[in-house]
Write a sequence for this structure.
């Protein structure tokens, strides 16, 4: 299968045409037009919001391969896709091909979007020159929102490749010539950027914003700051940033874990950052969708006739499933895994799993039947939208489903981890934070939680989400967890190699960052 979302990107960064959108709505889907910056009237300062909306369009238009590649090396996820995209399956087994198109695409799309976000910042700065004091404050907020989006892209790049470029301009030749920043420098840069952004961002939950519901707020920035400090293993900084979110008393866990990842859970009080997609609830209007098909089963009998199936490229691992069964997990396991009869039979070849809970069957609670298919034994339930929740006459797999990027449960568990690693906290204990997450899932409370307990809880709660499990394991040098089902993980496999095309084009990038 070829990359079905495969525009041509230039190797060296270029100035990207400015997105100019016509309206601000509660979704980020209607932003197709482009207008040259020279054509804009910067004295019409009311139009600068269009650059912000354009930035939300940029951040939401992720290629289908990006979340897959960011996640696939964890012990919670297998590549699936048997018979297609062999280098993707090889990546899951820690065998890396510098020439593989997915590696280059992740690099190009992320950096292309960073440059485009920089263009939107420059556009707002031009409007700001003609703004009154109130409008200047609004401009500063918009720029801060975009900086959070830009920092998240930099964060992903540093996790995958470690030493990467910090790009803050629209023509980054000088930044490239200066060479890449180390991962530590990048994470400190992200923390500093968030520290600058936090005071000028709205003191709201994302879903409390009325101008752009679901937009970035200061708590999105705190979350990213906490993640940067986690990567630096600065657990006090991590605890402090998480505590700012917890002590705001603005966030709570959505009560229904199963529905959190479906239409009812969109923009809940748990959400800190969410990529938004929609078809306006209409069968005929334009739609703005993420391509969820790679996550889905290649064969199903949908409860709602004519709903399309997926590609079978993202499979919950047998290790994850057994881990969850051993813990007597119910709602989180049911939510995370779509079962096939073939997968269930394979699971039951292990005598320890001969008898399974009733929810382990190939029919979801919403009536979709997951048929056997060759590419995988299971599919991701967190990326599944029940066919009955599709808009009438819309058939795309997962069509219109949002994608959660950061949520309060992760903050609670990061806070708990920081405390178990020696940080001091405020307002809540590690036990309390972990038990909020466990109790939502119907699990009994724990006392005296250890770092190991917290990491197990993160595995159960956050499996299959943005590679969180993989990056936790390499941060902790816990290579034994990643050596599973015949895989052998070693330290030189932590990072993907730089794409060969980038090494050829960018001399300051230096040699590859890991063995092939």
């Amino acid at each position: 299968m070829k990359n079905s979302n495969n525009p041509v990107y230039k190797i060296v960064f270029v100035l990207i045409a400015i997105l100019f959108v016509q309206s601000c709505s509660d979704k980020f889907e209607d932003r197709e037009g482009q207008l040259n910056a020279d054509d804009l009237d910067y004295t019409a300062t009311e139009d600068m919001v269009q650059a912000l909306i354009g930035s939300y369009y940029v951040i939401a238009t992720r290629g289908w391969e990006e979340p897959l590649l960011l996640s696939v090396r964890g012990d919670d996820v297998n590549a699936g896709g048997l018979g297609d995209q062999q280098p993707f399956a090889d990546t899951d087994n820690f065998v890396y091909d510098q020439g593989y198109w997915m590696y280059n695409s992740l690099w190009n799309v992320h950096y292309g979007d960073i440059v485009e976000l920089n263009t939107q910042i420059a556009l707002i700065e031009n409007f700001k020159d003609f703004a009154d004091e109130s409008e200047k404050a609004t401009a500063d907020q918009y720029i801060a929102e975009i900086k959070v989006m830009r920092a998240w892209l930099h964060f992903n790049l540093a996790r995958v490749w470690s030493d990467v470029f910090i790009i803050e301009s629209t023509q980054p030749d000088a930044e490239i010539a200066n060479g890449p920043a180390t991962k530590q420098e990048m994470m400190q840069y992200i923390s500093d950027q968030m520290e600058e952004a936090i005071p000028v961002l709205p003191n709201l939950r994302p879903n409390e914003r009325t101008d752009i519901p679901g937009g970035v707020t200061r708590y999105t920035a705190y979350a990213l700051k906490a993640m940067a400090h986690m990567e630096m293993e600065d657990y006090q900084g991590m605890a402090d940033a998480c505590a700012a979110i917890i002590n705001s008393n603005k966030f709570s866990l959505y009560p229904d874990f199963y529905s959190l990842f479906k239409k009812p859970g969109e923009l809940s009080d748990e959400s800190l950052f969410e990529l938004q997609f929609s078809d306006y609830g209409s069968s005929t209007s334009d739609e703005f969708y993420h391509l969820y098909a790679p996550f889905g089963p290649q064969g199903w009998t949908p409860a709602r006739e004519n709903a399309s199936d997926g590609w079978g490229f993202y499979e919950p691992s047998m290790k994850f499933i057994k881990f969850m069964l051993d813990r007597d997990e119910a709602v989180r396991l049911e939510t995370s895994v779509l079962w096939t009869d073939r997968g269930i039979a394979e699971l039951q070849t292990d005598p320890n799993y001969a008898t399974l809970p009733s929810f382990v069957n190939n029919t979801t609670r919403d009536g979709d039947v997951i048929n056997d298919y060759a590419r995988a034994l299971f599919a991701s339930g967190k990326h599944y939208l029940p066919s009955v929740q599709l808009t009438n006459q819309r058939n795309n797999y997962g069509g219109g489903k949002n994608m959660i990027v950061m949520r309060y449960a992760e903050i609670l568990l990061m806070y708990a981890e920081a405390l178990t690693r020696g940080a001091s906290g405020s307002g809540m204990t590690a036990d309390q934070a972990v038990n909020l997450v466990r109790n939502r899932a119907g699990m009994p409370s724990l006392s005296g939680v250890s770092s190991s307990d917290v990491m197990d809880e993160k595995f159960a709660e956050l499996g299959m989400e943005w590679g969180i499990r993989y990056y936790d394991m390499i941060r902790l040098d816990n290579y034994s967890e990643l050596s599973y089902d015949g895989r052998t993980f070693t330290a030189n496999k932590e990072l993907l190699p730089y794409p060969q095309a980038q090494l050829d084009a960018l001399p300051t990038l230096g040699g590859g960052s890991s063995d092939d």
Summary: Residues 133-161 form the longest helix (29 residues). The first strand starts at residue 77 and ends at 78.
